Amino acid sequence: MSSDPMGKLSGIKVIDLSQFLPGPMLSVMMADQGAEVVKVEPLSGEPVRGLAPFEAGQSIWFRNLNRGKKSVALDLKSAAGCDALWALIDDADVFIEGFRPGVVARLGFGYEAVAARNPRIVYCSISAFGQTGEWAHHAAHDMAVQAMAGFLAVNDGPDGMPVVPGAPSADMAAGLTGLSAVLMGLIGRERTGRGDYIDVAMFDSLLPWCAHIAGTAVAGGEPPRSSSQRSLGGAAFYNVYETADGKHVVLGGRELKFVANLLNALERPDLIPLGSVDPGEAQAPLIGFLRDSFRTRTRDEWVAWFADKDVAFSPVLDFREAFSAPHMLARGLIVEADGAHHIAPPIRFAGEQPWVPASAPELGADG
Which of 35, 148, 303, 339 has its CA 20 to 30 A from that of 82? Predict the structure, then answer.
């Protein structure tokens, strides 16, 4: 939180009907900066409330995406539930919904209806493929969106088989895009006096993330193949290597200075020219040498060996190791409060006070 004890978004009221990841991530970043976020849940509660693991009586997922919010449980198919939601909307600045296209309008809370009653509202719809287009009504969560956007095709192993992605990139891209769009909408409202409508699609939000790897396809040519693409496994110095103990390390920088520093240290300066040839088959001898070399020591022995060398090298840590790392602790990225652990906000401002996590609401605690 900033040095302003109320946060940079103090005085902004957000009504959030979304669930799972994209919308709640958008609104929790606003709540962390002082916005009043009212989470409107069905009477049964957001499904994430019931997803393990749990800590201090709440789902860790739910707490980390919904801290600092209020909870109102409403039946939007009832007149009383609709009346209660309208009362919340009347003085709101932001409205977020994550239903499939057309659903919120059928409930009576589409943008036109909401803006007619509150013209200053910034209204954000988050969906898999957007409110228009051939795929608009196609049911999809994160992996299905990644599959249709081309990303899963390059999330593959050496055998070319796509694997389940480790990060919900489409979900998170939509949350970040939505936050940026909402803040732009609020700034624009200061000039015009009116809010706006934002159609955020997970699909659309993810696409810009491929510009560095899919240039040929963007330009109408062939799609990238992991085995021959510089950032996907075709380059020796941007690759994953197994160590003697069955763990892994990565080389994560292809600059020639890193190539020279490592290969000189390994007494193979003759291989340095291969670091600058085209990725793929031409780099196979270098990749093979590095694979053999890394299998001669354990992961932690390599960490010690690299300590005095200027090479873009990292050990592959699991989440437990990552969350226990001194760097993580030094930057205060995990905070314990009331018997529960929180991942701290990545957005910080100069002069801010140490961040103290707010609690996540119990279902219907605020109405």
Answer: 35
